[in-house]
Amino acid sequence: MAKEKDNKEDICKKTLCSLVKKNYHQDHPREYMSLMKKAGYLCAKCGRPTVNKKNVCKPVKI
Question: Pairing mode, if any, of strands 49-50 and 59-61?
Answer without folding.
Answer: unpaired
